[in-house]
Design a protein that fits this description.
Strand content of chain A: 15-25%
Structural class of chain A: alpha/beta
CATH topology of the largest domain in chain B: Fumarate Reductase Iron-sulfur Protein, Chain B, domain 2
Largest sheet of chain A: 7 strands, mixed
Bound molecules: flavin-adenine dinucleotide, FE2/S2 (inorganic) cluster
Distance between the termini of chain B: 60 Å
Oligomer: heterodimer
Radius of gyration of chain B: 22 Å
Helix content of chain B: 25-40%
CATH class of the largest domain in chain B: Mainly Alpha
Number of helices of chain B: 9
Radius of gyration of chain A: 23 Å
Strand content of chain B: 5-15%
Structural class of chain B: alpha+beta
CATH superfamily of the largest domain in chain B: Alpha-helical ferredoxin
Order of helices and strands of chain B: EEHEEEEEHHHHHHHH
Largest sheet of chain B: 5 strands, mixed
Number of helices of chain A: 16
Helix content of chain A: 25-40%
Shape of chain B: elongated
Distance between the termini of chain A: 58 Å
Number of domains of chain B: 2
Shape of chain A: globular
CATH architecture of the largest domain in chain B: Orthogonal Bundle
Largest interface: A-B, 75 and 69 residues
Chain lengths: ~600, ~250
């Protein structure tokens, strides 16, 4: 059964839902696809906050979109597009207030004197009482992260999904897009596989949006939800014409718990938490005397790995880790503002953070790279295709995303991309393309069914083996510290895995919701993403943001002030890379300033 | 500590496989330190039976995907550490919800329908003004809303509810809590009658016979029992107050 709609949004996290709300409010028909019920999307897990320069707090006095802009551009290590960043910082406050209008219970300013965990006192202004509050987050000049107690992502997802309900937008959950329908010029929708029944069906649309979130789960250790396997990026790459931008830009989070890699929020460090080594020595001030634990997260992650490599990590059956110490923050503050963190420690580790140390290590956290679009959200390479949120690279984050900027990005991108689509569809003449679309869709479905058939027929390679192999290679050789030798090995080994994946076969029957079949269908695309990351990282012979090359420790603007674009030519072994300049409108490249101090290693010195 | 070998007896059935019959299957797994049911089930799927169906997304008790019956009690599997469990663990899918396969059930469809029935959105008269400052609210009030907004739609409350098993249209305490959430929100302007029309019925508060298993099994410790009592009180008060449409008499019960 073919389903036809104006707009097909693949992904029902914050980005997908905000886009859907925007187009629906313009009177267009929209269908949301999601692997899971929308409220279970990974966006729900965001605990920390959403950056928007409201300037309501004592410690955010003097904040403005200009300061937010500067933080974002510096944070990106000048890898972002500044026209996008400018639009983003202007719209972020609107997005926060709109979310309040939809019911998000943002924490509010309480006037009067308050003692901060570090002993300082602040006086919140009487005239700001009851406005939306903000807290500190790593890597920003001002307190700017708006938050809803300790469940920012949850509160936002529920508020947005409530709007989706109210507007009567159709949601097809447990429905996975497995291929795009296209003719090399225009995208006509997607082929989806029903994760309840196994049925394959086409969705035809005048506009198709990829809002499928990050690819974190292709790494062995990730804070991402288990469904974040990058499939949306992979089906775009599979078209052979749509490029992915800056796939080598992968962010790690300093504080995933061991074991399990559940993230404990940046707010722990923002609210005064310390990082300790095996001797319970607070080591961050040794490396970063000014920012200490509050340096941007790629800097903190790198310092942690550096410290562990010196043999100062705590040994454990799950490998070495460090300690996060929030004991001195106090029971009251922990229970009130860090409740989710306390809960994680107690329920998953059997640890009480009021009295005990939390075992942490850096893990994969965020994918800056994604489906390359222009500043309005139109994907390169195919008309009628758009992307938003973590799956997209439009490009706000460059080589490092600021904590709290991505939740804000999902909402702003949804507004912008939704508006673009409404404008584009106004001009689009559909009837002429309908017949073409139907036959393309039929062919695309046939190809998917053939893949299923081949997997069911048997093969010598097993899905979980190959998946684990891929994710270990990434973790070991394409992690926080990178170098030419290991990256070359990673490319070689991943290519081998990619070849082996041609001989994948199922061990169990593939009927209904077979999890083995679902992964077997995704895996080849995931491996191609892994190759885009490793190959892009190998070619980029500089260090920028979270891409840190031990053998090229300097940023090299003369050669690398540009974005990597990776496409996958049909039948190729490796992606084809090309480069494009980044858009610099206001702030010329300079020192990252707030980031890594140059006392050691001199890694952040600007070169060229 | 001696290493234990855990025996998992797991419900198996694939409704889309014509030869599948519902049964319990045993798997033996060596316990590792800090093991949770997420760790254990993942190992079973990856090392013993790749067809085993279950749902985890966040594995950190925030997304509500993974509720199942663990030795008879509805729980979030990701937040269930094996250490306190006995050597034999029986895992069954949540009752009440439609079975997708093995331990996977369709909670999403039920909760979406509930959301629609209770009109789970802020009812406002005015439009959003992009240029305007946000409406003020005390932090206390924000906290109070947040407190009731924390439901993760895992389905434990409904699965534990004797009434829900008997009357499938019962909104459950999840539905009541959702309404209570909007009643404390000053931004919500739905008319009181509309609220009572939904909850003043057998599908609403009158459907509840007060077993309150929901309250015991909520993994988020939401105040389900106290909100139910609160809604009842509000309903009773409204029934005593003369309203403009019906001068006296009880709230209409359909
Ligand atoms: C633990 C954690 C905490 C975080 N905390 C913060 C924070 O405090 N502040 C902040 O700014 N950012 C935070 N982030 C990052 C932020 O949460 C994400 O970047 C953001 O929520 C991504 O939203 P999204 O809508 O792009 O994707 P997601 O929320 O991941 O949604 C993706 C959607 O796509 C669907 N989908 C995927 N593939 C397919 C397919 N093939 N077919 C159909 N549907 C598909 C999924 O079902 C899902 O609905 C955090 C991230 C993590 C991991
Ligand atoms: S996996 Fe999200 S609640 Fe258990």
């Amino acid at each position: 059964m073919t389903i036809t709609t104006d707009v097909l949004v693949i992904g029902a996290g914050l980005a997908g839902e905000r886009t859907a709300i925007q187009v629906a409010s313009r009177g267009l028909q929209v269908i949301l696809l999601s692997l899971v019920p929308p409220r279970r999307s990974h966006s729900t897990a965001a605990q920390g906050g959403m950056q928007a320069a409201l300037g309501n707090m004592a410690r955010s006095q003097g904040d403005s979109p200009d300061v937010h802009f500067e933080d974002t551009v510096k944070g990106s290590d000048w890898g972002c597009d500044q026209d996008v960043a400018r639009r983003f910082v202007t719209l972020a406050p609107v997005a926060v207030r709109e979310a309040a209008y939809w019911g998000v219970p943002w924490s509010r300013v309480v006037a009067g004197r308050h003692k901060l965990p570090d002993g300082d006192e602040v006086e919140e202004a009487q005239q700001k009482e009851g406005l939306i509050a903000a807290r500190n987050f790593g890597g920003t000049k001002k307190w700017r992260a708006c938050y809803a107690s300790d469940g920012t992502g949850h509160a936002l997802v529920y508020a947005l999904d409530n709007e989706v309900l109210k507007l009567g937008i159709q949601v097809h959950d447990r429905m996975e897009a497995v291929a795009l329908v296209h003719d090399g010029q225009r995208c006509y929708g997607a082929v989806a596989r029903d994760l309840r029944t196994g049925e394959v069906r086409p969705y035809l649309a005048r506009a198709t949006v990829i809002a499928t979130g990050g690819h974190g789960r292709i790494y062995g250790h990730s804070t991402n939800g288990l469904i974040n396997e990058g499939t949306g990026m992979a089906i775009a790459l599979d078209t052979g014409v749509v490029p992915l931008g800056n796939m080598e830009a992968v962010q790690f989070h300093p504080t995933g718990v061991v074991p399990g890699d559940i993230l404990v929020s940046e707010a722990c460090r923002g609210d005064g938490g310390y990082l300790l080594d095996k001797d319970e020595h607070r080591f961050m001030p040794d490396y970063e005397p000014a920012k200490k634990e509050l340096a941007s997260r790629d800097v903190v992650s790198r310092r942690m790995v550096q410290h562990i490599r010196k043999g100062l990590g705590v040994e454990s059956p799950y490998g070495p880790h460090l300690w996060l110490d929030i004991r001195h923050v106090g029971k009251q503050h922990i229970e009130a503002n860090l409740r989710e963190v306390a809960t994680i420690c107690r329920d998953f580790l059997g640890i009480d953070p009021v009295h005990q140390l939390i075992p942490v290590r850096p893990t994969q956290h965020y994918s800056m790279g994604g489906v390359r679009t222009n500043s309005s959200g139109r994907a390169y390479g195919l008309a009628g295709l758009y992307a938003a949120g973590e799956a997209a690279c439009w490009d706000l984050h460059g080589f490092n995303r600021l904590g709290g900027n991505s939740v804000a990005e999902t909402l702003v991108a949804g507004m912008v991309v939704g508006k673009t689509i409404a404008e584009d569809l106004w001009w689009l003449d559909i009837p002429s393309s309908e017949r073409v679309a139907a036959s393309l869709a039929q062919e695309a479905c046939r190809q998917v069914e053939e893949r299923v058939h081949r997997l069911n027929a048997g093969g010598t390679e097993h899905v979980f083996d190959l998946r684990n192999r891929m994710s270990n290679i990434l973790m070991e050789k394409v992690g926080i510290f990178r170098n030419g030798t290991e990256l070359a090995e990673a490319v070689e080994k991943l290519t081998e895995v990619s070849h082996r994946a041609r001989r994948l076969g199922l061990q169990s029957g593939g009927a209904g919701a077979s999890p083995e079949l679902a992964l077997a269908l995704r895996l080849p695309g995931m491996i191609r993403l892994a190759l885009c990351i490793a190959y892009g990282a190998l070619q980029r012979t500089e260090s920028r943001g979270s891409h840190h090359r031990e053998d090229h420790p300097y940023r090299d603007d003369a050669h690398w002030l540009k974005r990597t674009l990776a496409t996958w030519p049909p039948g190729a072994d490796l992606p084809a890379l090309s480069y494009e300049p980044v858009c610099i409108t206001e702030l010329p490249p300079g020192e990252r300033g707030y980031g890594e101090s140059q006392v050691l290693a001199g890694t952040e010195k600007v070169h060229g | 500590m001696d290493k234990r070998t855990l025996t998992f007896r797991i419900f198996r059935h694939n409704p889309f496989d014509p030869v599948s019959v519902p049964r319990l299957q045993e798997f033996r797994v060596e316990e590792t330190p800090r093991m949770t049911l997420y760790t254990a089930l993942t190992r079973i799927r990856e090392e013993m039976d790749p067809s085993l169906q279950f749902d985890f997304v966040c594995r950190s008790a925030v997304c509500g995907s993974c509720a199942m019956l663990v030795n008879g009690r509805p729980r979030l599997a990701c937040r269930t550490r094996t250490e306190p469990l006995p050597d034999k663990v029986t895992l069954l899918p949540l009752p009440f919800f439609r079975l997708v396969g093995d331990l996977s059930v369709d909670t999403g469809t039920w909760f979406r329908d509930m959301g629609r029935r209770v009109e789970s959105w802020v009812h406002q008269h005015r439009a959003f003004e992009p240029g305007a400052e946000e409406e003020r609210m005390s932090n206390e009030q924000a906290q109070a809303i947040y407190e009731l907004d924390r439901c993760i739609e895992c389905g434990c409350c409904v699965a534990a509810c004797g009434m829900a098993q008997m009357s499938p249209d019962f909104l459950g305490s999840a539905g009541m809590l959702r309404i209570a959430r909007f009643l404390v929100d000053p931004r919500d302007h739905r008319p009181e009658e509309a609220v009572f029309e939904v909850i003043g019925t057998e599908e609403g508060v009158f459907g509840c016979i007060g077993l309150l298993a929901c309250d015991d099994f909520c993994p988020k410790d939401l105040p389900l029992a106290s909100r139910l009592a609160y809604l009842r009180r509000r309903l009773a008060l409204a029934a005593m107050r003369p309203s403009p449409s019906t001068t006296t008499g009880p709230v209409p019960v359909r």
